[in-house]
Amino acid sequence: MEVNRIDLSNYKSGGSTIFTGRPQGASVREKLDLDEIDNSNNSVVFIIPSDTTSFNPSFYLGLLFKSYERLGIEGFDGKYSFEISTIDEATQKVLLSNLEDGKRYAINSLTPSSSFKSLFSKKK
Predict the structure, then answer these.
(1) d(CA 44, CA 78)
(2) Which of 46, 55, 80, 86 could form a disulfide with 98 if both were Cys (CB 3.0 to 4.6 A apart)?
(3) Percentage of the chain with pLDDT > 70?
(4) Mapped to the 3 state alphabet, what secondary structure does 71-101 carry?
(5) Where are the beta strands (DSSP E) in the chain?
(6) pLDDT confidence of residue 113
(7) Would strands 80-84 and 43-48 be described as parallel, antiparallel, or unpaired?
(8) What is the pTM of this model?
(9) How many domains, the chain?
(10) Residue 10 to residue 65: CA distance in whole angstroms
(11) Is residue 35 part of a domain?
(12) CA 112, 116, 121, 124 torsion: positive or negative?
């Protein structure tokens, strides 16, 4: 199995320090051809650049939700991972929290019975 290392600094807007927006994440997904990678035996390490201050769940979902749908949680975890380049501990904590939020939102969307909206759905 080959490991692809993808430097996300190539996909930031101008001098931005954040990754945000579901459409922007989906655009990066398309540029990286993650649908093809999902179907391969290769794994991916996304490198979050050292000047990044936020990795919003919206971007995470645009980039990776289709992979969760296709691979399931365990398959996703075996294929995709992140490397945070910053050495600033406070920023590392923020970015780890951002990634955990994105993952939690993806999992909640895959399993709607555990989400808030299931409280209001009709039982058949």
Answers:
(1) 9
(2) 55
(3) 90
(4) HHHHHHHHHEEEEECCCCHHHHHHHHHHHHH
(5) 3-7, 18-19, 43-48, 54-55, 80-84
(6) 60
(7) parallel
(8) 0.86
(9) 1
(10) 21
(11) yes
(12) positive
